[in-house]
Amino acid sequence: MLILSIDTSTTVCSVALHQNGVLLGCYELFVERTSSAMLTSLIDDVVRQTSFTLNQLDAVAVAMGPGSYTGLRIGVSTAKGLCFALDKPLIAVNTLAAMAEQIRGFYPAEMLLCPMIDARRMEVYCAFYDTTGEERVPTKAEIIDEHSFTDQLSHQPVVFFGDGAAKCQAVLGQQPNAIFPEQVVVPSARTIGKLATALVAAGQVENPATFEPFYLKDFMTTQPRKTVV
Q1: For residue 209, what pLDDT band results from cuts at 50, 70 and 90?
Q2: Does the pLDDT at position 223 exceed 60?
Q3: Which of 25, 55, 188, 213 is most exposed, with minimal Cβ within 10 Å?
Q4: What's the CA gap between 35 and 171, in Å, rounded?
Q5: Which pLDDT score is estimated for 218?
Q6: Given this model, what pLDDT does residue 33 score?
């Protein structure tokens, strides 16, 4: 099972190739804005450098969100285009679940993991997972204040991580059960592909014709100011 994975849900643009769940190659760019041309180049590079061709792929996996509206649109559109062109199945992986997969092996069983993606001002996209990868609280948008996550923090230690954790630390950093790792964990195609392997085995594939990213919130635009002459 050869799976190409794509993650453009934040400012990190990454692609990876897995064979039977084993990582063969990964390219990551830490840039402010992802472009379709940039993503296409990374896909070509990771497939070519691992001595495969696109036609040999068995499936294409993509980070479904939450995350950046523009980034998700680019990643999902590219993945759907590949699936149509190659007649391959599409696998969608929750971005937060893939973030939790990166660190769950480093913490004891009694802890909860809360990946966070920045969502403007004091809001984050977050979810809760245990150290087996099981979802405990579904993905949601949360406005952080001193009362946030009291149910979880009153019962067990919680590891808050991701680019949205800094604003949480400023408010909840004094909570004895709140843990904030020093290293920032960013979404990556490395764990998108790992989780996608299990989803394919379980028959959980998407219809490329109807699949849409998990934006979680409506896209917000700002109106340009009127020029006073």
Answers
A1: very high
A2: no
A3: 55
A4: 35
A5: 59
A6: 77
